[in-house]
Amino acid sequence: MARRAPRYAEAERNDRALLEAARKVLAVDGAHTSVAAIAARAGVGIASLYRRYRTKEELFQHLCALSLGQWIQAAEEGLAHDDAWEGLVHYVTAAIEFSAGALGPLAGTIEVTDEMAEKFTRSDELTKALVERAHEAGVLRADATTVDISLLVEQLGKSSLAEQFEARGRTDLAEAASNARHRVIAIALDGLRPGRDPLPGTPPGPGLLAERW
């Protein structure tokens, strides 16, 4: 067991690095992203990666499951807040910060595993609980749905200005870009408050996000 512990810790570190790298590379290359590009970005050897994951699809399935796990953790932390609004804000902000929507380009290109389906269901249940609690507390506009919140997180969680500057080596603008992102998140959250003009169109159906997969 003692011998396996360091290997397990290394595997976890590699997973985190691969997930972060996949999010950044997918934001640029989309579904055509190569495993080699992700491995290079993460600093992980392509040979060692393929010793652990037999195929590109298996790697992407694992990364999707990891990402869904982060959605779940953010939602659970949000529900742990006594204040319904602050709990929702925590969830939305945390999910955007770890770029929750960056793996969206993989939708429909890989088979959904049982683990992915189970975690998606759990994540959806927790998000619904956050939204229902906020509605009951009167702190969330009545016409904002769970799908609206998830789409908001996904859209704001895509390639950020800070990441774009980072890719160009403009670290001098990192702080300004991060500040700008926080302002945009705050503007979006303010739009979820009650008392605003009605949202346009009809509420998106509950299967809209899942149908992509």
TrEMBL record:
Annotated InterPro entries: Homeodomain-like_sf (IPR009057), HTH-type_TetR-like_transc_reg (IPR050109), HTH_TetR (IPR001647), Tet_transcr_reg_TetR-rel_C_sf (IPR036271)
Domain HTH tetR-type: start-end pairs: 12-71
Coiled-coil regions, chain positions: none
Organism field: Streptomyces stephensoniae
Protein name, as recorded: Helix-turn-helix domain-containing protein
Xref: SUPFAM superfamilies: Homeodomain-like, Tetracyclin repressor-like, C-terminal domain
UniProt keyword terms in alphabetical order: DNA-binding, Transcription, Transcription regulation
Regions recorded as binding DNA: 34-53
Region annotated Disordered, chain positions: 193-213
Keyword Nuclease: no
